[in-house]
Amino acid sequence: MELSHTHHVLLFPFPAKGHIKPFFSLAQLLCNAGLRVTFLNTDHHHRRIHDLNRLAAQLPTLHFDSVSDGLPPDEPRNVFDGKLYESIRQVTSSLFRELLVSYNNGTSSGRPPITCVITDVMFRFPIDIAEELGIPVFTFSTFSARFLFLIFWIPKLLEDGQLRYPEQELHGVPGAEGLIRWKDLPGFWSVEDVADWDPMNFVNQTLATSRSSGLILNTFDELEAPFLTSLSKIYKKIYSLGPINSLLKNFQSQPQYNLWKEDHSCMAWLDSQPRKSVVFVSFGSVVKLTSRQLMEFWNGLVNSGMPFLLVLRSDVIEAGEEVVREIMERKAEGRWVIVSWAPQEEVLAHDAVGGFLTHSGWNSTLESLAAGVPMISWPQIGDQTSNSTWISKVWRIGLQLEDGFDSSTIETMVRSIMDQTMEKTVAELAERAKNRASKNGTSYRNFQTLIQDITNIIETHI
């Protein structure tokens, strides 16, 4: 599709790897469709981009820009303590407005005006600013349709007096009756947490995104049909494009954007392993473990007798570098491989991988599902708990590991997940995901509709 150079879309993800990764996949899709794209990161994450020159050469219509998140360079960016979120809302919002104005009055190094904004569903201020400047704006949710709908349902749960006890089962949530608990909700709702920060602030920020021209989701229609139906009554239009990494494979240009350097040496080791024999273990980019938890995982994996590939970030344990170093130095004649970061999509797609022990972030969940790999879920934060519930109880493609586990529990679950009893179920779901992202699938068609709607809205505003 040949589009005018006046079509210039700015993408602005929340500054966390789990948000940036699918946003970049969307950026590549938009570039392939003929749009000019500016990808806006915070300075902190922009500095971590590998090989900008290669990316620029492969995607000449993609430009990177950055803005301060308002925190000092040495400040830890803990996405769950509220400090980063508040700093962005208070400091970055004014900088974001200045940046849009600089583009649109021609003072931004000759870059063309921004004619459309796609912002993270966690932000309200880009919508306010884009509306003020007369720029169309869409919203992208990088977590599931289910989790987003739960945010919209929180005022109803509060009104009904249901948010009292962490293990309390919540009633009346469309599409989730008997499945959602207090602790599955977005934010923190104990008396102590509410006193420390107002979780309704986050909720209200998200509720305001219903004013956008449309909602983009990394999911596919039948995977979350009840929640897509509910969200379609809230947003003007819904575009389900998932799995977005599978959709991207329909296009030739697929440069990789990595916040961490990936260790591809593990792929040669996987080539030497039998089919469906390896357990892949990764806790994502944010979750941290205690030393005890790490050792229970380690002993359970070793005692299972299964070969495993373990991703062990250097910061996975608070002040626990010695424990990590000790494990990294252990050898066992090829029975396991340990890397600091792995090319996860390649690993999950490898024929040797038969199971995935995961934190159940939405990106990891979809990537494992699309690859047909059953999961052991160990959810800790954010949307991970409800993702895990759907993995184990609704889709039945995995097991859920509760806190308080020991090595024998890990050993039993690893052996269970590798016995291939779930192979047929997860393979069927993977085939559906593949079909939906194919050129005849609903996700592909939804993307074409999104491009048409973006261009129509832009041309209406020009």
Number of strand elements: 13
- What is the percentage of strand-forming residues? 5-15%
Number of helices: 19
Distance between the termini: 20 Å
| Inertia-based shape | globular
Fourth-level CATH superfamily of the largest domain: Glycogen Phosphorylase B
Main sheet attributes: strand count, strand direction, barrel closure: 7 strands, parallel
Indicate the structural class: alpha/beta
CATH class of the largest domain: Alpha Beta
Q: Mind telling me the C-alpha Rg?
A: 22 Å
User: Architecture of the largest domain, according to CATH?
Assistant: 3-Layer(aba) Sandwich
The overall average pLDDT, rounded, is: 88
Proportion of helical residues: 40-55%
Oligomeric composition of the shown chains: single chain
- The strands making up the biggest β-sheet line up spatially as 3-2-1-4-5-6-7
Count of individual domains? 2
Query: Any low-confidence stretches, pLDDT <50, length ≥5?
Result: none
Topology diagram in text:
Blueprint: E1 8-12, H1 17-32, E2 36-42, H2 43-46, H3 52-58, E3 62-67, H4 83-104, E4 116-120, H5 125-132, E5 137-141, H6 145-159, H7 191-196, H8 199-207, E6 215-217, H9 225-231, E7 238-240, H10 244-248, H11 265-271, E8 278-282, H12 291-304, E9 308-311, H13 321-328, E10 336-339, H14 344-349, E11 353-358, H15 362-371, E12 375-377, H16 384-394, E13 398-400, H17 407-417, H18 423-437, H19 442-461
Parallel strand pairs: 1-2, 1-4, 2-3, 4-5, 5-6, 6-7, 8-9, 8-11, 9-10, 11-12, 12-13
